[in-house]
Amino acid sequence: MKFTLGFSPCPNDTFIFDALVNKKIETGDIEFDVILEDVQTLNRWAIEGKLNISKISYGVLPLILDEYKMLHSGGALGKGVGPLLIAANPVDIHTTGFNINDYTVAIPGENTTAHMLFSLAFPDAANKTFKVFHEIESFLLSTAGQCTLGVIIHENRFTYQQKGLHKLIDLGDYWEKRTGYPIPLGGIAVRKDIPADIQYRIDHLIRQSIQYAYKNYPVLPEYVKLRSQEMEETVMRQHIDLYVNNFSVDLGEAGKKAVNEFLKIYARNNQASSVKQDVFI
Fold this sequence. Notes:
Elements lengths: L1 E6 L3 H11 L9 E6 L2 H10 L4 E5 L10 E3 L5 E3 L5 E4 L16 E4 L5 H9 L6 E3 L5 H7 L5 E5 L3 H4 L6 E5 H9 L3 E9 L4 H21 L5 H5 L6 H11 L2 H4 L2 H18 L12
């Protein structure tokens, strides 16, 4: 049996899936046709039902629940891992004169968790431009002196200060204080038309792949280094340490509650009567 599997080239994903896709663990009769893409492309493909198994942002989950369920392993969820709102110049967003609509805000994809969390903090924001996540720092630097802000994720959390950019608010911290739950950033979706027993086997294989990766850590697999866009190894490890944790091995009840809270807020913000809650295999 061969299944299409999509995830990003970011260190957290390649670290998680290295052992699985490079046959460092036994997968039996299950094989994978691997596609590496940025998360917004994966989100769009999930809406189209293109891949059998895919990393997605939880921000797109309400739109794909007719076709997909979520696995328990392989995702990114935790505390202190959320997106940041930044600017080329310091801006005090807490002053009475601050108006988010005086600014154009670059966001890493329309259906991303970052967009959802930004909308939670700034529900009235209207001037948004959607870009691939690694384009946002350059956008801010090229528009310095203009009224632009940007939401950053992934390794840009570790590099924005080196480029002279300034943090305005930690959107993940805003979520945590508002809800008391860890932040559900992304997870692994599996098509419902795959038999349930195979879904559980895939979930177990991903868990095994993470456990294998940790056996040799902090040594980085070549698979991670070759796909990390010339990132320094220290930044790769920061990325892995931030986004791969116990929730990646198994969401558990705490993780599921966080996702369900996310779906409730989505329904409220989008004036939807309800969103399915039975989202996991």
